[in-house]
């Protein structure tokens, strides 16, 4: 990339100032730190929108980080980092020992990776939602994408495919219908466990810890786990399933309220109280606990997600329970006296 | 790299005719293999096409050619080291996640590029960059590993991201 001290040329040919490039790099440093609060994220978005050069610089930063992410990261790190060690004069045996040492050290890193991705990946994602938030997006091909609470997706659209990468949380996808909205490119949703190919349809996908669940509302999808060769499964309207990296479970009838969240509702039908509260907990910050003695009580109802405090406040009127508040963000549901 | 090569000048042709055999011999003594030496000599002359210095201005052609060829040799050596380290580490991965040979080739090119832009940064800055981008450690974890403070790690990343993000093509 050609450059002098004050300007540089992006691969697209656009000339940007060094100041803009540094600012984009500094946003990356901040976002990667995981310390950026809502206010700083808003400022970052504002900075991007303030000038076309800013957005171009940011797009460049994203494609470079994207390219690094596409590497097999552990081997790439081992190569680049051990290279630094082997650069200094030392015997081949010593070089190898250093390399293995770094490689061993990496195992801890890989473990941390799993817990850490939750913090900075969603920050850099193309579309995201905060806790308690549902957000709607219309994509370039007319597909409507709804993000449930605390969710993030990356969009990878190119000439051959439309790929939606679910980084965290839950989404509903409704593919475009009608004139001008039939796109010949296949549409995929990728999760940590596998991919879901849309066959002209509406469906929801949720990323759990180490599994993905899918429910089809209209038409059909094809579910393929990453490692289970030949275990792809067709899932029709009114069906749901979940899958790991290796296998897809047999389809079961979908809950008719699978997309209730997209309308801002939490629907329970004879649901166990602990399951209900686990669901409710997704939509509010802080801790929500339940006393084991009442975990098996059953609850039914349609609750508005807009005010989760109010849902907790109504519990004593439908069940023999009360809510203990330790702080505003720490509530425990206990038996009524 | 320039979009358009200047035409091969008579000077360069002359340089080639006069010194190619010598350069191949010089390289053969270092790599120990005739074909590699011939390839590298070829690359040396080709790289002169991209230079602004006219061949006629080169007063001492042989030391000059040796310098250019030596740099190419070092690049090649770095690339081999990177490639070996990468492939060794790749062998530790389960088979089903191993990238295709084509993807491996692209990965080695990416590694070479990253290695080049990180060259010249202090070791801790380089390591902080790699740990943050490739291992995705938190700044606190990187600080612990490098025996420094989180705010230093942030400074390292500020420097590395400023210097590298825009030196990397896509």
UniProtKB/TrEMBL annotation, chain A:
Gene3D superfamilies listed in its UniProt record: 2.60.120.1440
Residues annotated as domain FecR N-terminal: 22-63
Any Pfam family hit: FecR
Protein name: FecR family protein
Example of a GO MF term: sigma factor antagonist activity
Location of the FecR protein domain: 126-222
Entries under InterPro entries matching the protein: FecR, FecR_N, Ferrdict_sens_TM
């Amino acid at each position: 990339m050609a450059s002098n001290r004050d300007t540089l040329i992006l691969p697209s040919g656009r000339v940007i100032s060094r100041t803009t490039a540094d600012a984009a790099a500094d946003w990356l440093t901040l976002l990667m730190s995981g310390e950026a609060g809502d206010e700083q994220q808003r400022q970052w978005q504002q900075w991007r929108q303030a000038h076309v050069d800013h957005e171009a610089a940011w797009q460049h930063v994203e494609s470079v980080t994207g390219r690094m992410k596409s590497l097999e990261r552990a081997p790439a790190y081992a190569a680049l980092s051990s290279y630094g060690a082997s650069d200094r004069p030392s015997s081949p045996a010593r070089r190898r020992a250093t390399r293995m040492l770094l490689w061993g050290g990496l195992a801890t890193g890989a473990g941390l990776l799993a817990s850490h991705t939750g913090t900075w990946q969603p920050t850099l994602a193309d579309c995201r939602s905060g806790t308690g938030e549902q957000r709607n997006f219309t994509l370039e091909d007319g597909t409507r994408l709804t993000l449930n609470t605390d969710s993030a997706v990356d969009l990878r659209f190119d000439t051959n495919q439309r790929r939606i990468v679910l980084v965290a949380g839950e989404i509903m996808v409704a593919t475009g219908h009608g004139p001008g909205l039939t796109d010949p490119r296949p549409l995929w949703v990728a999760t940590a466990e596998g991919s879901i190919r849309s066959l002209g349809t509406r469906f929801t996908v949720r990323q759990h810890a180490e599994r993905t669940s899918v429910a089809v509302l209209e038409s059909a999808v094809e579910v393929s786990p990453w490692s289970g060769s030949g275990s792809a499964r067709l899932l029709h309207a009114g069906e749901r399933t979940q899958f790991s990296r290796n296998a897809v479970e047999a389809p079961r009838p979908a809950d008719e309220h699978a997309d209730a969240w997209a309308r801002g509702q939490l629907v329970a039908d004879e649901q166990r109280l602990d399951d209900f509260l686990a669901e409710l907990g997704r939509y509010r910050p802080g801790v929500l606990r339940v006393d084991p003695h009442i975990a098996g009580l059953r609850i039914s109802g349609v609750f508005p997600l807009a005010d989760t405090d109010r849902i907790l406040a109504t519990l004593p009127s439908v069940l023999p329970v009360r809510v203990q508040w330790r702080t505003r963000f720490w509530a425990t549901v206990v038996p009524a006296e | 790299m320039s979009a358009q090569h200047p035409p091969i000048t008579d000077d360069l042709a002359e340089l080639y005719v006069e010194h190619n055999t010598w350069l191949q011999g010089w390289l053969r003594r270092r790599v120990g293999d005739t074909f590699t030496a011939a390839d590298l000599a070829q690359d040396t002359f080709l790289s002169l096409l991209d230079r602004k210095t006219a061949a006629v201005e080169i007063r001492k052609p042989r030391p000059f050619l040796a310098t250019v060829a030596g740099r190419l040799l070092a690049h090649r050596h770095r690339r081999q080291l990177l490639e070996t380290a990468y492939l060794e580490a790749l062998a530790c991965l389960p088979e089903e996640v191993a990238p295709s040979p084509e993807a491996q080739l692209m990965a080695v090119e990416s590694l070479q590029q990253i290695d080049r832009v990180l060259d010249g940064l202090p070791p801790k800055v380089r390591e902080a960059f790699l740990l943050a981008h490739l291992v995705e450690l938190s700044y606190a974890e990187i600080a612990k590993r490098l025996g420094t403070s989180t705010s230093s790690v942030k400074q390292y990343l500020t420097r590395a991201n400023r210097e590298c993000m825009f030196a990397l093509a896509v």
